[in-house]
Amino acid sequence: MIKTVSGALTKINKKSQHAGDQKMILGTHRVAPTKSKNCSRIYLRGLSAVTRTGEPTTKELNVRTRFATVRAAVNTRAKNLATLAQDQAAFRAQKDSSGGCITFNEWLWKQEGDAYDEQQNG
Q1: Under 8 Å CB-to-CB from 78, ≥6 apart: which residues?
Q2: What is the C-alpha to C-alpha distance for residues 104 and 102, in angstroms, rounded to an integer?
């Protein structure tokens, strides 16, 4: 027998022409001190198609452009073996300081995001 279950038990095939008629079965289990021993739930969810009613705003397009540019810069910098040791040393130096980045990836995103913002704002 299955004691506990958590997650999607069945998924909706979004490519199907009948996707709107399908249901996803989602099981959840939590462990918490409650009065009830029944902490498992089963939900049925339908396909929720959200359609855009208008064109993206200029602000939204700017956010998308910033994200794509910073992501490309982070990927390039993470694979650059010439500067990887220096980047890791700089990351370790700030890691334990107040407000420091906890992960190396977070640090790379902050560095490249700040560089992008400085370049755009002058």
Answers
A1: 84, 105, 108
A2: 7
Cα 7 to Cα 23, 25, 29, 53, 102: the distances in Å are 14, 9, 9, 32, 29
The predicted-structure confidence for 12-45, as pLDDT tens digits, reads as follows: 887 888 877 888 888 887 766 666 666 777 888 8
The pLDDT score that the predictor gives to residue 67 is 97
Place of tokens 């038990």: 9
The tokens describing 110, both together, are: 């902050």
**Taking phi first (over 0 means left), then psi (-120 to 50 degrees means alpha), and beta for anything else, what does residue 99 get?**
left
Q: How far apart are CA 93 and CA 108, in angstroms?
A: 14
Please, is 91 exposed, middle or buried when counting C-beta atoms within 10 Å of its C-beta (0-12, 13-18, 19+)?
buried
